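Can anyone check this?
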Amino acid sequence: MSFAAAASCSVTVDLDPLQDGVSCPSGQKSCYGSCVSIMDPDYGCTPDRCAPCTLMQADAVCDPSSAEGRCILSRCIPGTEFESCDGNLRNGCETNTNTSLQHCGFCNTPCTCEVGFPTCIRGSCRCSS
């Protein structure tokens, strides 16, 4: 029984969207074949990356005072159950007000029961025995 050796080959795939050969004007960068603003949070807030700013359930903006192009939270997305109940927008919208016993339905609205066990379900406090 004989086997033939397969010829080897290599392929180089450029996965960096910044290296797509598009030349952009000052203040812009090339991402995925299009020129976009360096200060666009959908494309990363820095001249050297295209990954979007992502913060949990939040709208982000680019910090214009940051030389390294930091993304910052501008607000929690309205209509979601996530809020920034600790008042620290740097860590995102960390609280699920649909399930939190300390923030049931709204920030700083604890779910407590005189009798039974509290449960926050879809933002409503329920007491069960």
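Reply from J.R.: I decoded it. Residues 1-17 have pLDDT under 50 and may be disordered.
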